[in-house]
Amino acid sequence: MSDFLQKFALTGKVAWVTGASYGLGLAYAEAFAAVGAKIVFNDIKQELVDRGLAEYKKKGIDAYGKVCDVTNEDDVKAFVADVEKNVGPIDILVNNAGIIKRIPMTEMSVKEWDQVINVDLTGPFICSKAVLQGMIERRHGKIINACSMMSELGRETVSAYAAAKGGLKMLTRNICSEYGQYNIQCNAIGPGYIATPQTAPLRKRDEDGSMAPFDRFIRSKTPAQRWGHTEDLQGLAVFLASEASDFINGQVIYIDGGILAYLGQDPSNLDESKFAAEEEEEI
Ligand code: NAP
Ligand code: GCO
To answer: Cα–Cα distances in Å, from 132 out to 82, 94, 169, 181?
Structure first.
């Protein structure tokens, strides 16, 4: 590999991706492994961890996975200590674990609000805090947060999610501000609408096979006229985890097929026949 390409390699680096048994987290981890990283992941339940371990094995990746709730600081501290002992110091953290509750704000309970804020905002705070001290001592570290279109835009039913993802954008900038002096970079990936189980309810076709109104809406709002795929996110994840991005800090980079640049077209102009039952891929 040329010296230039070497800057994109993660050879021997330990990368911890939270909530990475499936979905986007698995895709980030798979990309890191392809360029030489050792993969560590956690998930909220043993059955998810088992599913993840089987999936990584199938892909030829020797991943280290354990149950750990990102909202529980004691759990997270114990997880990090275990990883440091059994795998090595953590060089890269991706705060990927996230949940969404699509409930109109006037009907949302404080409990439901807190659950979303806890996983999507407090979780990244707890996990980042748990790895930062080691990164400071080693004068090296990469933290990548999972932002969203909802870090910039609002929409009906996602008040807690938007508040958390908007907050995560500012946590990204703050980690950069506070720890950039130690050669620690904290950036975020802001995926657009990606075909994963989290978004499956939004794409579910009607019984007669016609496109869901939200699916139609998203395609009309997206210049690329399609949902994203997990592979669309992998290149940026590797870049932000690698030495090639060492002077990029505090940024949110959006991978959205152009949504944030576009006012959108009238959904009724969309030619539905072009999209017949494609992209039902889910991981
Ligand atoms: P996902 O499929 O729901 O995966 C997230 C994982 O995190 C799941 O395994 C989930 O477990 C786990 N998790 C939930 N709470 C946890 C906790 N307290 N501790 C540890 N793990 C926990 O999500 P995704 O679609 O892959 O998205 C990944 C991230 O990207 C999320 O932060 C999401 O908000 C963000 N994002 C997604 C999209 C998209 O279009 N899919 C777009 C923009 C941003 P359970 O399955 O039990 O919940
Ligand atoms: C929703 C979606 C979004 C996406 C994503 C967009 O209900 O609008 O679930 O929130 O998952 O975060 O970037």
So the answer is: 16, 13, 18, 12
Tokens found for residue 34: 């392809």
Measured from the CB, is residue 194 less than 6 Å from ligand 1? yes
Cα dihedral 117, 121, 124, 127 in deg (nearest 10): -50
**Which residue's C-alpha comes closest to atom 12 of ligand 2?**
148
Q: Indicate yes or no: pTM above 0.90.
A: yes
| Residue to mutate, 196, 222, 283, ligand 1, most ligand atoms under 8 Å from C-beta | 196
How far, in Å, CA of 166 to CA of 220, rounded?
Answer: 24
Residue 95 phi, psi dihedral angles, 5° rounding: -80, 85
8 Å CB contact between 10 and 90:
no
193 assigned to active site: no
**Centre of ligand 2 from the C-alpha of residue 177, in Å:** 27
With CA atoms as reference, report the closest residue to 198 among 148, 267, 251: 148
Could you tell me the mean pLDDT of each successive run of 10 residues in the chain, 283 residues long? 93 98 96 98 98 98 98 98 98 98 98 98 99 98 98 97 99 99 98 91 86 92 94 98 98 98 93 66 49
